[in-house]
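Re: folding output
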Amino acid sequence: MKLALLCLSAVLLDRWLGEPPRWHPLVGFGRLAGYTEQRLYGPPPLGPRARRWRGLAALLVLTAPAAAVAWLLAGLPYLGVAAECGLLYLALGAASLREHAEAVAAALRQGDLALARRRVSYIVSRDTAELDAGQIGAATVESVLENGCDAVFGALFWFIVVGAPGVVTYRLVNTLDAMWGYRTGHYRDFGWAAARLDDGLNWLPARLTALSYTLLGRSRTAWRCWRTQAAAWKSPNAGAVMAAGAGALEVTLGGAAPYHGQWQSRPALGLGPPPDVTTIERALALVQHALWLWLGLLWLWAGRLWWGGTLFA
């Protein structure tokens, strides 16, 4: 019952308070990661293997102490429960995701493409300067579906499984992957460890997220898209999540998108028309319904333990 209460409390805090407007720990962590990269990246003559070792060292330096602190805080008498709830709240991003996506949708409804491009640039890594309204909507839907895993369900999963150290490690690795996990010349080797560990940590949460989307949307279409399209996507985890999500919404995602000044071809995901403004709201609703499904199942499990008399065994 304690675990269910902690998860519900953190989700409600995220819903009511949203992302801290100032002094968010992940912002400070990002700056620390940038400094660590400068110190450990090494000179140009380094080979790929040495660069990978340096990237692994940077990953451990940044995540291991934070996980240890989270473990110590969670073990504090009386204050440990509050610390666990606070750490999970800081790791969740459902409210922030909704805020950013709704801001894009509002700009599209107003017909202000310049504003919509600027707002969507906050939640995607692609170039947004030349996107049209349809491409902006598609980018936003893709971000909502994928970040539903990264910022919501992955965090909940690792908190449920490992507790505070698990959710802290997961979110920090996820942040490092967002910073270093590019297949460019600069990060291909240095970011290899962060990218591979993020893939490993997200493998099961991604598939549970895809299953949640499948159950709560157009299930047959979602399952067919997940089964036939996910493997073609460059990320095995994002492919499963977005293929199932696109199928659940019965829209088509993917296709060409601009990255680093060049348009890159991407496989199509889903089945149906291109997304529009209303699809953004439907994607947000799908993530929200999946979140309540997870919490409901967690409470059913906790209630079974409670009534079974094994809660404190």
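--- second protein (sequence, then structure) ---
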Amino acid sequence: MTGYAQTVFSDKNFQITLAVKTYNNRFLDINLRMSSAFNLLEERIKTFIVSQISRGRVELSLQMASQEKLQNGNLVVNWPLAQTYGRLLIDLKDRLNLSAPLQLGDLLTLKDLIISRETFFSEEMLWRKLSPSLKKCFDGLQKMRINEGKNLSVDLLARIKKIEQGCTFIAQKVPKVVDAYQVRLQNRIQKLAKGVEVDPARLAQEVAILADRSDVSEELIRLDSHLKQFKTLFKDTEPVGKKMDFLLQEMNREVNTIGSKSLDSTISHQVVTIKAELEKLREQVQNIE
């Protein structure tokens, strides 16, 4: 399900800007874009996201700027490392009998000599500052997703109602199809027999065979049960997307069986309509958590 939320936290040390977006996806896919200072918190952040969202693509942007950066820049010299580099370069020059003087440029090319102030923030301190803002941001996201879910549920229930109406039509139509078949069969036999008396028992047997072949009562009962279970999931507080997906597969199986037994064009038409609604439901359910 889709959603967006953003929050900003500031104190005397730094400013944290969080933005989270969610998109439709069958599985949970987490994508993090963070300042390097938060790298140590990556697993904690992912664990938190998993506790909040079970399905969908989650994109979290997490940026931090120290107040010094906002005012005077954010880069500092890593003096302990600079002093170590200096001693090593002097020792290297002496051992190799190099006459060229040591230049500032020789140091500036060395790794991690100039670093961000953010590097000095400890993992625990960052988590204490970040976690309340992270929760606030996801609370806002969930409110937006809940509103979308309410709108989506209206559409899903409307499609369920159409399917139920189609099932009612089929249940009422099947006996009429058998009766109509009996009349057609009797008229045809009488026409072919040209006045010869037809054995009523034999006629009843043929009608009974057709009635058995076209009987879809069991399929309709199971389909009705699946529809009722599907509707109860709207009241569930746990993730229900996968349960809905499973029920839709079972419904589709029952409808296919009904279609294979159909001997009437109007019933076949209802089967096509029901399958179309099931497909639309399936597409929507892929996005439900």
